[in-house]
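Q: Sequence in, structure out?
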Amino acid sequence: MKPAMASATLADIKTHTRRIVAGCENAKWEAGPCFIRDPGTHWNIGGKAVQCPYGGKGDQLWVRESYFEFGHWEPVEGVKTKCGRQKWRFVADSKEVFYKPVRAKHPVCRPKDNPGVPAIYKRLARFMPRALSRITLEITEIRIERLNDISADDCRAEGHPKSDRPFTKEAHDDAARDWYMDLWESINGPGSWAKNPLVWIIVFRRIAA
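A: Exactly. Output:
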């Protein structure tokens, strides 16, 4: 999760997430009771049985997010990258983990000049091990719909920050949808909203990590 989404999840503002139904983006889909096999885990999409890869009701997910650690870099002896370069690994020099920046800037990658010098590094979300995850979610529902069919209430459940501005309900709804459209394109690229793919709607609640 991006930092803002992790914060919204911790504040119990974000309770939904959407993911593209891979391989079925343009398949024919009619909303309704199209379950086959196990209700809630398999869907009939274009005549094909599709299982949600993220689990089903009652399953747990753990969240990866960017974090910060104090440590240094060491070469992995005898191991090369796919490009034939020396493989390096990050070694933590402290058990302390930060989920927010402790200063303005942090190095993200291994410094070429002094890789062995300890420093606070920003670690990308994909490198987060399960032991450092602070957010565990329980799936309470799985649905499918076209991306553009998202309601304003669901946009809020995706993490749209609350606003106290004296707008009409319609204006608040429009702001929530515009916010989610921008969020989707920031993750999936320009023009991805207009493609209107089928998406998994994963509804969850936060539980003790």
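Confidence is low (pLDDT under 50) at residues 33-37.
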